[in-house]
Amino acid sequence: MSTAKQAYRALCNSEPSIPVFSKAWWLDAAAGSENWDVVIVEREGEIVASLPFVIKRLLGITLLTQPSLTQTLGPWLKPTSLKSSKLLSWEKEQMQALIAQLPPYSHYVQQWHYSYSNWLPFYWKGFTQTTRYTFVIDDLSDIASVYAGFSHAKRYEIRKAEKHIRIAFDLSAEEFYENHKMALALQRRKISYSFSLFKKLYETAYRHDAGRTIAGYDKDGNLHAALFVVWDANSAYGLISTIDPRFRGSGAPSLLIREIIRFVSPLTTSFDFEGSMTEDLARSYRQFSTQKQPYFRVSRTPSKLYATAKFLRSMISTTA
Q: I want to staple 150 with a disulfide (CB 3.0 to 4.6 A). Which of 78, 131, 154, 265 is the partner?
């Protein structure tokens, strides 16, 4: 194990501002400990910046990216009280030091956490970005106020669900996965992640007291909906939801959102719906008193061969 990786593991154990998806234990579970690495910047014996990445190699192509079921990954900068006039130059220095240490690669792509909005140092080094959006309840300190901000339609769904939906925590990994697989099959869709991956993340998140499932059942024992939520000191994230389309009108998904927010409110400060660029989901998330948060998908492709292959794939998918 590299010295940088050892130092980063220690940092993750002591630094609360590192998002859960960038924690060493999460990357071990999501990618395998041998498949990710990290570059760090140290100043006066202290790590002030880091950039973990997953390494994928195939036929001479090297990708620096992020694992499945990992919403964001990218640079972390130590929180600082520098004024804005000095902050930008400090961020430039640390980020360009990270870029300079990246191993040779054919393609880099990561989705950054929305708390990092200054990607200019990467732009100056030839990277590009696409803006995406997530939806966040940014303050859970006053739960009554959060609930009051829900739309009339969401509050109605919750009241309806309260009459016939029973809430239960800690649905097993097997039950959650099989329900999601079944719910997608009913919509003629295939599940996009393996059970072995989900089980690793589920068990590791539970072991680190950073994740939980919540489910809603009717009186006959039918599972209407379930959520797998993970969290860190700054936010909870609605990582995966499963909704049985046969019970879509029961209001169970909205009730689960209210209950999981109530559960995580003493543990963290905000709730991230793990946004979507899908119009219907965006409309639904907005009704939970959320703020729209932009985040960046940052990439660079120094390999002409990979860039050409990527272009041809895009042309084929466009004309198919």
A: 154
